[in-house]
Fold GTP cyclohydrolase 1.
Amino acid sequence: MAHNDDFQDEIGNNHIATSAKNPVRKDAFVLTDDQKIESIKKDVENILQTLGMDLTDDSLSGTPNRVAKMFVKEIFGGLNPNKKPKPSTFDNNYKYGEMLVEKNIVVYSTCEHHLLPIIGRAHVAYISNGTVIGLSKMNRIVEYYSKRPQVQERLTMQIVQELQIALGTDDVACVIDAKHLCVNSRGIKDIESSTVTSEFGGKFKNLETRREFLDYIKLDTKF
Ligand SMILES: [Zn+2]
């Protein structure tokens, strides 16, 4: 396939994911976090320098280090498999055989085509076949996969796949509704639009089960 600049632009502007896995190289974890921060710091310095910014200004002097730390430790910290949340699952002793929905999980991710934020909500559901998972683990799984340069479709699939493995069932679903700042604040500048992606596994492919899940998402929770 010809990977010329036009082709690359088109992939990026249309937010096309090329794989269900993040395109991470084999040598991604040869450098330590500290070595990465040191290297990225110089890159950020170079960007600001090239843009003509005065890096001796007090307001800017700490920015390269701050951005480098933020990339490695925070917004892209989920690239490191060591940070994957341990799936604490339990036997379903109380025999709850219905659907469990965890809705409105906050998503903070980063578009891998523009490195701008993706902000939204994830709604996750599963039907237990004997194993249950701690509720906060579902939030942590969403958070872990969000902290990568991402594409929303891939994020949705990764959340479902991770829960399918942890729970030992295909009956898992996820819907994400999110705003992409690359669409909202630049390019077409459409501040109203949001992107919805969904992945329905196992019983959720069944129309009635899927509708039940989507109806729960619509519930207006008061407390
Ligand atoms: Zn983008």
